[in-house]
């Protein structure tokens, strides 16, 4: 796998914004909950899913900052390196170290179920960041609507291409609910709204090397590719731009050779690429809010708070799942028109 180191430090949102958001919640507000009391003194164990993605590197930077704002103690973080067995081992280690609640991001959403049920039986609540476990008791999932990612990508490409042409889609791992949601929504939208567009689905398992090889092969067999959908800019951006540059296809919009590209993540590097005309858009999933509300909900769990479905005071919606709850955070489309918006976490770096 290509390691994609973070090249710019990601700045922070103002602490007062977070404290106001937390303070405004109440038991009578749908989706909200009061701050945990001082009695919830157990630490929160945090496991990071990987270290080779700019998005997850940014998330990791936000964790200690948001923990300080919320006044919670974090055990770890550990890093499971995209391996579910390491997730399980790290969970056991964090609990042994005294973690009373856990914030994790299991990439294999099917295999983690039995461990979640075991933890529930031991009274240890779990918050899952970015991914929704297929089974197993979960206190809260904190993620954006990943089907909306695929839908937005489809509509953007379909409109830019005028409903015709060939598109390459770098699919995330289909063992992950995120990979499935994005892929299924993209396909359904293309099939129903833009039947004149041919989509080449390229499995990648979230690996940049696989995406790079797939693009090189596809451009050799189909040199008239006009669009690319990258389901994770944090791992696919650099390999994609390298291939296009080598083939003299990294040209700005308006050039006949330009390939329209939309991504998912909202990292600073994607924003720079949008400004440079190298890619056209991304859907920003909020790394800062993932850390903020992941820890927030873990603190509520330690306080014995039961989430309430409905709209929240932080612009999201809590829904009830068969195995828990989910806080669905907003994820805006970013193009050249709004790429400099200071409210986007990818612009937080000073």
The count of strands amounts to: 14
Placed side by side, the strands forming the largest sheet appear as 2-1-3-4-5-13-12-11
Separate helix tally: 10
Gyration radius (Cα, Å) is 20 Å
Q: How many domain units?
A: 2
Helix coverage percent of residues? Answer: 25-40%
Which sheet architecture does the biggest sheet show? 8 strands, mixed
The CATH homologous superfamily of the largest domain is called Response regulator
CATH classification class of the largest domain: Alpha Beta
Q: Assign the CATH architecture of the largest domain.
A: 3-Layer(aba) Sandwich
Give the averaged pLDDT, no decimals.
Answer: 89
Question: What portion of residues belong to β-strands?
Answer: 15-25%
Anisotropy-based shape: elongated
Order of helices and strands: HEHEHEHEEHEHEHEHEHEHEEEE
Class inferred from helices and paired strands: alpha/beta
User: What are the low-pLDDT stretches, counting only 5+ consecutive residues below 50?
Assistant: 1-39
CATH fold-level topology of the largest domain: Rossmann fold
InterPro entries: Peripla_BP_I, SBP_2_dom
Domain Periplasmic binding protein: 44-304
Signal peptide: 1-23
Keywords: Signal
């Amino acid at each position: 796998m290509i390691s994609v180191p973070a090249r710019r430090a990601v700045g922070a949102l103002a602490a007062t914004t977070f404290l106001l958001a937390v303070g405004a919640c109440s038991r009578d507000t749908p989706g909200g909950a009061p701050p945990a009391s001082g009695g919830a003194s157990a630490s929160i164990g945090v496991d990071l899913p990987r270290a080779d993605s700019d998005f997850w590197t940014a998330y990791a930077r936000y964790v200690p900052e948001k923990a300080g704002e919320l006044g919670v103690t974090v055990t770890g973080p550990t890093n499971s390196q995209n391996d579910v067995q390491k997730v399980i081992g790290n969970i056991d280690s964090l609990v042994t170290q005294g973690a009373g609640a856990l914030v994790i991001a299991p990439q294999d959403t099917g295999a983690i179920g039995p461990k979640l049920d075991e933890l529930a039986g031991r009274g240890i609540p779990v918050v899952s960041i970015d991914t929704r476990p297929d089974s197993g008791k979960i206190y809260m999932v904190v993620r954006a609507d990943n089907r909306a990612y695929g839908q937005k990508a489809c509509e953007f490409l379909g409109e830019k291409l005028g409903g015709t042409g060939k598109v390459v889609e770098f699919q995330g791992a289909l063992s992950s609910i995120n990979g499935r949601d994005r892929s299924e929504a993209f396909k359904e939208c293309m099939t129903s709204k833009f039947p004149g567009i041919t989509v080449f689905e390229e499995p990648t398992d979230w690996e940049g090397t696989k995406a790079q090889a797939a693009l090189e092969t596809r451009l050799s067999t189909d040199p008239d590719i006009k669009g690319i959908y990258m389901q994770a800019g944090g791992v696919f951006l650099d390999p994609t731009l390298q291939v296009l540059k080598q083939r003299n296809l990294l040209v700005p919009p308006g050039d006949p050779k330009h390939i329209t590209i939309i991504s998912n993540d909202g990292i600073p590097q994607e924003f720079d690429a949008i400004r440079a005309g190298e890619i056209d858009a991304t859907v920003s999933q909020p790394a800062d809010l993932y850390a903020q509300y992941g820890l927030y909900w873990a603190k509520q769990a330690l306080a014995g708070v039961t989430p309430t479905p409905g709209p929240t005071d932080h612009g999201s919606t809590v829904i009830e799942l068969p195995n828990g709850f989910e806080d669905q955070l907003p994820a805006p489309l970013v193009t050249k028109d709004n790429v400099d918006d200071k409210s986007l976490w990818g612009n937080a770096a000073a």
